[in-house]
């Protein structure tokens, strides 16, 4: 354990960020970074766009997401709940905590498919 | 079999919450098994959430009927008392139509509960009354009248509107019933721990607070899911401080006996005693953070007042 985290916040500490890039070969995006209070607006915009796209299957590649808080999982569940019949999100390689939160609060959400490949 | 009907007869509203005082195994079974059997005979869904040794006793006494009862080891399902209302009681009750009576035997207080756990246990018992007001539910809570202290037994009279005295049935109204006073009395200060990793945070440093919790948790011996839980709890508590608790707070992490503890202090005051214990409606957007903390931590203690709020969580190493 280094001492760097013992010091209180000082201006200049890098803020968490979330980057979003289109996926090649299928509809969806690759998201990287932290899904938390600071990036919630970006994450909700990503999900808003995903719902609007209208594709039957929309991929959310999350292997480079390091953390998702409960509100971030809630935003995903809410967006998935707005998908019409026959549509779904495929969530690829999410951080384990996201699966735990989804299993805890939305265990029977049929419009989210978690893929570990 | 006459004992089983008594809790229902003494309540005015649909919700019944009797404390059953027992002195030995026989009184335990005489108080609980007829309650279960009568429920099954009436077609009521029945759950029994009691410590494992008691659970085996009830299961054996029920015989084949045990197959239709939801059996839960309270030492596991209710290790954190803050988890019991959302994770055990309402999880079971809410799975059935509102007009159907649900019966639950729930034993959250047993002789092995530590002094650290007890305030959370007794607050939980008091809050059951608010959490189930108006619901068609009976929750029967056994209390070991021999091994529990006089204070614990007195508290049970304050947290239960109805009591079934040991060996002196029938049930009667509890004259000492005062659940709000119990919640307030056990809102005990959590003294500052000096020898801890200390991290003051504001909105811009929430991520750093999370990394600090991860590093310190790992250093103190947490791994895998438990380490993830510590990080998730830290994120939820610190975010709550920023959003609801005055915009800043102080995170502390340290080890104590077999646990790693995570504590967040802020300047806010919690006004809803059921915060973190109410299962959210499916479509509710926010408000799940503290509930998640209650579901994953081995113990959660809260102190709140004009001077601020402290939430402390235990994770077993």
UniProtKB/TrEMBL annotation, chain B:
InterPro entries, alphabetized: Anti-sigma-factor_SerPK, HATPase_C_sf, HATPase_dom, MEDS_domain, RsbA-like_anti_sig
Any Pfam family hit: HATPase_c_2
Superkingdom of this protein's organism: Bacteria
Ranges of residues in domain MEDS: 17-161
Protein name, entry field: MEDS domain-containing protein
NCBIfam families tied to this protein: RsbA_anti_sig (NF041045)
Transmembrane stretches, start-end: none
Assigned keywords, A-Z: Kinase, Serine/threonine-protein kinase, Transferase
Residues of the Histidine kinase/HSP90-like ATPase domain: 203-312
Organism: Streptomyces pimonensis
